[in-house]
């Protein structure tokens, strides 16, 4: 049985990846320090013979006393609210944490895939974004702590590949959504859905003309799975190219949720990218992958998840 270590296992993507690899009959070791994650995301795996969990901060030396075939490094705050609240930890998990996991992969002769992001393109001047675009990031802006941590993460990963011959994979994840997102993580989907459920107006930042392209979690997980098993070591975009403005998106959510609330406008956060859409030609060619779940279907499943939360969860404003 293949053994895989998944960091960030108690988070949104990490927990779905644990499920997927258990389904594929891997032995999964989940690791997390719960800084933005939730034990509840893994509660259904308690007692599973193919799953074990280690509570650990990956910025500290990572010790695993068994062989490993694969490592997925997904630990990192991922929402703008989170990484603005814990900027130093964000920089540390992308740099020191990645260094520790690359060292572990080298010691275990394991293949490692790291979770990079469309944020490496910053506020992009090339549209849609292709993997060969170097990006437009403000190093010292508020989002720099996340963007630069992820850019460093890519650099050190390629250095381990080139210098040590380590088997590495880099996925550049574009906005992904689905069940188990944290309602109060500030990302636009939980924000709008939470507001609709609480009977509050939907907060659009800026004039809502900025765009995003939302990928359903099962499609994302499938892309990551295929990339891990591929033989390609340069970055690959995984996301859904169907682009929408945030204003149109708010209208879709109002229709889906049936809320009688309206939209209100707030200031656009500094360096908030104006446009984002993945070019997924590479993933299509290399992995024979493309997203299958359209926004209407994915959003309905996600809204059903948020509707199933308790009143206490719905009104909890702090993590
Ligand atoms: P999340 O916040 O739900 O999950 C991240 C997990 O990492 C949490 O459980 C958190 O507790 C854990 N973690 C953070 N720092 C840690 C540390 N030092 N040690 C151990 N665990 C730590 O976020 P997510 O949306 O699931 O994102 C997962 C990964 O995917 C991140 O690396 C993120 O940058 C990347 N990503 C996500 C998206 C997206 O749309 N969801 C887009 C681009 C990139
Ligand atoms: N956004 C918004 N209202 C909110 C939360 C977010 O208008 O309540 C906007 C945000 O400014 C950004 C887009 O929605 O332009 C996506 O934000 P998110 O935090 O989900 O992801 P990211 O900016 O990292 O793509």
Automatic annotation (TrEMBL):
The keyword Lyase applies. It comes from the Bacteria. Its cofactor is NAD(+). Residues 4-238 form the NAD-dependent epimerase/dehydratase domain. SUPFAM superfamilies: NAD(P)-binding Rossmann-fold domains (SSF51735). Keywords: Decarboxylase, Lyase, NAD. PANTHER family: UDP-GLUCURONIC ACID DECARBOXYLASE 1, UDP-GLUCURONIC ACID DECARBOXYLASE-RELATED. This is SDR family oxidoreductase. It comes from Flavivirga spongiicola.
